[in-house]
Specification:
Length: 253
C-alpha cells in the first residue's frame, strides 16, 4: 500500500490513527496547529477508563500496536464521597483505570505517541493549522464546543498514591470533583456540566473539601489549569471523504 493520508490534529486520536496507517504502509502526514503535542494540557493526570468494555484498555492499546512508552499506572481502588462526605471505597480485581499524564513532556501520553509516530515514519508538521482537507483524510482536532469544563490544580504532595472523587452539585454541578495522586504529584479538579459561571466558586470548594477529607494532603507548588470537553451523538463519523476520530467525532473517555 502506498496511499498518502493526511491527518489534522496530533492528539491521541490522530496519532494512533497515524501510527496504524503508517505501519500498514501508508505515507502519513499529520498537521498540528500548535508548536508541540499536548499543548492544551499541563502535565495533569487523566484516567484511561477500564470499565467501558470487556477488553482491558492496556490490552486494547497493545492490540492496536501502541507501546507503553509513557506513564500508564493501573489503579484498582477509587474512594468516592457523596455530598454529605459519606465515603465508599470501590475496589476491582482488574484495574478501574490507567493513570496517564497529558502534555508535551517525556512520560506524557501525547509525547509517547508522538515518538511512536515518528518511529513509524509519520511526518508531523507543527505550527500548521488546516481548516479544510480538500481531498479527504482524518480529522482529529479535539473538542469544538464546551459541553463540560474542568478547572483545577496540579501540585506536589506527600500523600500516597490515591484516586478519589466527590459527587456534590455544589462542587461540580452535574459532574464530579476528582483527585489523582501518583508518586507525590497530584491533579485535582472540578469537572462541571452546567453553571459554568460558578467555576471559581466550585473550584475553591473542591480544594477545601478535598483538604477536609484528606487532612494529610499538604498542597505545595500548585499550578492552576483549565480545559473543556465536547460530547455528542448522531453526527456521522465519515462525511464528505473525511473520517472524524476522537473528540472531533463526539467521543469521550
Ligand atoms: C481537564 C480535562 C480532564 C480530562 N480527563 C479525562 C480523563 O480522565 N479520561 C479521559 O479519557 N479523557 C479525559 N479528558 C478528555 C480527553 O483529554 C480528550 O477526550 C482527548 O484528549 C481527546 O483526544 P483527541 O486526540 O480527540 O483531541 P486532542 O487531545 O484535543 O488533540 C487535538 C489536536 O488537534 C490540534 N488541532 C485542533 N484544530 C486543529 C486544526 N484546525 N489544524 C491543526 N491542528 C489542530 C490541537 O492543537 C490538538 O493538539 C479530559 C479533558 C480535560 C480538558
Amino acid at each position: 500500500m502506498n496511499k498518502e493520508i493526511e491527518i489534522v490534529g496530533a492528539g491521541p486520536a490522530g496519532l494512533v490513527a497515524a501510527i496504524n496507517l503508517a505501519k500498514a504502509g501508508c505515507k502519513v502526514t499529520v498537521y498540528e496547529e500548535k508548536s508541540e503535542v499536548g499543548h492544551r494540557f499541563h502535565g495533569d493526570f487523566q484516567g484511561l477508563e477500564n470499565w467501558s468494555s470487556e477488553e482491558d484498555a492496556a490490552v486494547l492499546l497493545e492490540r492496536l500496536g501502541i507501546k507503553t512508552n509513557y506513564t500508564c499506572q493501573p489503579y484498582s481502588e477509587l474512594t468516592v464521597f457523596d455530598a454529605n462526605l459519606n465515603k465508599r471505597i470501590i475496589r476491582s480485581q482488574r484495574p478501574l483505570f490507567y493513570l496517564v499524564q497529558r502534555g508535551h513532556a517525556p512520560g506524557c501520553l501525547d509525547h509517547g505517541l508522538m515518538e511512536q509516530a515518528k518511529e513509524a515514519d509519520v511526518e508531523i508538521v507543527f505550527n500548521k493549522r488546516v481548516d479544510k482537507l480538500e481531498s479527504g483524510g482524518i480529522v482529529g482536532i479535539g473538542p469544538r464546543a464546551a459541553d463540560a469544563i474542568a478547572k483545577g490544580i496540579i501540585f506536589n504532595t506527600t500523600m500516597e498514591d490515591t484516586a478519589a472523587a466527590i459527587l456534590d452539585d455544589t462542587l461540580a454541578p452535574k459532574g464530579y470533583s476528582y483527585l489523582l495522586i501518583h508518586k507525590n504529584k497530584a491533579t485535582m479538579a472540578t469537572c462541571m456540566f452546567k453553571d459554568f459561571k460558578r467555576e471559581k466558586e466550585c473550584f475553591e470548594r473542591t480544594v477545601e473539601t478535598f483538604k477536609k477529607v484528606f487532612p494529610k494532603l499538604n498542597i505545595t507548588d500548585a499550578k492552576e489549569f483549565g480545559g473543556y470537553g465536547n460530547f455528542f451523538f448522531g453526527k456521522p463519523a465519515f462525511e464528505n471523504g473525511k473520517y472524524y476520530v476522537g473528540e472531533a467525532a463526539g467521543l469521550q473517555d
